[in-house]
Design brief:
By secondary structure, the chain is of the alpha/beta class. The chain is 38% helix and 17% strand. The protein binds 2'-O-acetyl adenosine-5-diphosphoribose (OAD) and zinc ion (ZN).
């Protein structure tokens, strides 16, 4: 059933609705973007302080840019991996893991490459954009632990080719198993909680649309409105994921 939200509903009322919906649903799914990891000190991509303010993604995050000049792209990759390697899951990641453990969340679809959902204990995590834990060779397919980047810059495969992290760069397709797995979760869920994504990169941004088209309620948790707000999502709970998700979890436990 579609949730009813009034424009004057307070944050606490929306948190209450989210908790009730989670408790009712046995097929809820979370979709997470960079915003969920901001409180783990990982900068987002867009907006003030975002990675793309410093690095033009066409020059630093496109597969052709990597093929042309891996050393240049590794300036950004090194900064990103250095930050991610020391980051710890925050209260938002932990709350989602606990909701899954309690049986209220079926899984997490994420565009993040930081592995913080798994570090927090989430089991069913679909990584649409891969992760930064291993490096791969585009020439021979050999795989190495990410730590190899500490040895030389850019890190190289035994075959001599520059290595890259096992993430999706612009200009590359999403791994099929991740794409199909997330389509399935989105199609079958009855509640999608969309957390910390600007929803401008597809196919990640299609997931709430698919969920909505299949009858699910869509609730956003974000500091600000997105393209989904007012069209795809039923409501937005404005605030930090690390504040709001623990409150929803507490409410779920108390109901
Ligand atoms: P963005 O950087 O585009 O958006 C981050 C969102 O998080 C924004 O809507 C912020 O308002 C929100 N936000 C920031 N801090 C928050 C907090 N503490 N709590 C809740 N929300 C917060 O990140 P994504 O939407 O994830 O892809 O970006 C999508 C894709 O674009 C990434 O996966 C990456 C990038 O290019 C690839 O590199 C392939
Ligand atoms: Zn190789």
């Amino acid at each position: 059933m579609e949730i009813r939200v009034e424009p004057e509903d307070s944050m606490n009322e929306l948190i209450d609705i989210a908790a009730k919906e989670l408790k009712k649903s046995k097929k809820a799914v979370a979709l997470t973007g960079a915003g969920i990891s901001v409180e783990s000190s990982i900068p987002p991509f867009r907006g003030k302080g975002g990675l793309w303010e410093k690095y033009n993604p066409d020059e630093y995050a496109h597969v052709l840019a990597f093929k042309r000049n891996p050393g240049k792209v590794w300036i950004m990759l090194k900064e990103m991996i250095d930050t991610i390697r020391v980051a710890k899951p925050n209260l938002a990641h932990i709350a989602l893991a606990e909701l899954e453990e309690m049986g209220y969340l079926k899984g997490v679809i994420t565009g993040n490459v930081d592995f913080l959902h798994q570090a927090a204990g989430s089991k069913n995590v679909i990584e649409l954009h891969g992760n930064n834990r291993s490096l791969i060779c585009m020439e021979c397919g050999k795989r190495y632990p990410v730590e190899r980047y500490l040895e030389e810059m850019p890190p190289r495969c035994k075959c001599g080719y520059a290595l890259r992290p096992d993430v999706v760069l612009f200009g590359e397709p999403i791994p099929q198993h991740a794409l199909f797995g997330s389509y399935e979760l989105a199609r079958e869920c009855d509640l999608m909680i969309v957390i910390g994504t600007s929803a401008v990169v597809s196919p990640m941004s299609h997931m709430p649309v698919i969920a909505k088209e299949n009858g699910a309620n869509v609730m956003e948790i974000n500091l600000e409105e997105t393209f989904l707000t007012g069209s795809i999502s039923n409501c937005i709970i404005k605030g930090k994921a690390g504040d709001i998700l623990p409150k929803i979890l507490r409410e779920v436990k108390e109901l």
